[in-house]
Amino acid sequence: MDPEKHPLVSKPPAFNLREIIEGGLVEPHFQPIVSLNRRSIIGVEGLSRGLHPATRQLIPPTELFHQAMIQGLEADLDRVCRTKIMHDFRQVVAESPDFFLSINLDSSVFDQGVQGQDHLGRQVAELGLEPGHIALEVIESEVEDVKELQRFVENFRGHGFLIALDDVGAGHSNLNRIPLIKPDILKVDRFLVQDIQRDFYKQEVLRSLLNMARRLGTLVIAEGVETEEEALFLLDMDVDMIQGYFFARPQRRALLEKKAVTDRIEGLGEAFKKTFLKRMGVRKFNMNRFYAMIMEAQMELRMKGLAHFDGALKGIVGRSPLVEGAFVLNEEGAQVSEYFFNGNGHARRRSVVFQPFPKGSNHTMKDYYFSLMDPSSSKGSYVTEPHLSMASGTGCVTISSFFMNEEKKRFILCLDVNTHALGDENAG
Q: Is the pLDDT of residue 45 over 80?
């Protein structure tokens, strides 16, 4: 079971954990997992709350499982919680046949080997549940026996269960387990999701995970989404499956507010439409400014000979606050000017790693060069995807465009524009 990050109740009086286990004093809670593309709930994660034997006060999962660890009762508590969750899920799936259950497995299941796995299989069979309705969450960092983990995955996948890798992106996550487990689902940890709309590094890590998941045919669930801003950004990144307080807190089965969640999804869709149109308007406005700016720079360079490019570029970046740096290539991809930085407030990472290419450098492997030189392309200019500038160490896009100078020779003007200047939240 997964101790929830945000306990809902205060610490209860002292309790007897064996009494809770033997009496089955565990209350299942379910948190909806939504699909934004389908605009509906598609599953639930099963979580557990202990009930105090005397007061029936809810015991936070952090306290419940901490005591189990201290007393060596993880396996016993895990079985009780799992049985209670799957028992209640029978009623959930009876009302919503397309829902799936995501349930976390304690590492004790692997420690017990075949015995622990057989017990889990019997639980599912005795409750009359279909394996295809259940995703078994594995926290790979808790499993020491890699071969046992692999046997477990192969066994249960063979019986039709889904395998989910939990806490992906957390500090202890080992991505080298992904090719070993070949998970059906990656559950992205809240650490990566929290305030992702304001953190360029988190955005790029998640973008890499999404690209990898698409290639592997793996679903992605973003956990711990708490704000509309986070949800909107994830939606814009094409994250379909989301779980978190923004949609609903974990609830008892009888209290699952499906309509409230659906209404929240619909509201998010309307907010996304407005945000998208506004951002696209800003981006289009800025791109028009950039193209006007590069045309103005070209006009100046057209009247110069090669020997005077450096002086012209220095003046161009000085007059263009949106430009981070500028340089010129010849048709063979060689840099024929120095790289000129804009000193008007543009931040640079001072390190030997981040240095501009010197005059004479070969740029033929760069997309801002070969995309323009592609014979099948009729474009006279090109804008790269956001990337890390090796000149400044900051995120940028490079705008490149042909021009012909007074000597009737063709050159390529390249302007690096900081991604923040695009006015695009996705650019970081």
A: yes
In terms of C-beta distances under 8 Å and separation of at least 24 residues, what long-range contacts does 109-117 make, across chains too? Answer: 109/75, 109/78, 109/152, 110/143, 110/145, 110/148, 110/149, 110/152, 111/75, 111/145, 112/75, 113/148, 116/75, 117/152, 117/155, 117/156
The three-point CA angle 290-293-299 to 5° equals 145
Residues 79-101 have a mean pLDDT of 92
CATH class of this structure's domain 284-427: alpha beta
Give the start-to-end residue ranges of the domains of the chain: 17-256, 284-427
Helix (H, G, I), strand (E, B) or coil at 402: strand
- Own/partner contacts of 290-296, CB < 8 Å, gap of 24 or more, are 290/322, 290/383, 290/399, 290/415, 290/417, 291/381, 291/399, 293/320, 293/322, 293/323, 293/415, 294/381, 294/399, 294/401, 294/413, 294/415, 295/401
Give the CATH superfamily of 17-256: EAL domain (3.20.20.450)
Residue 354 DSSP code: B
**210: pLDDT confidence band, cut at 50, 70 and 90?**
very high
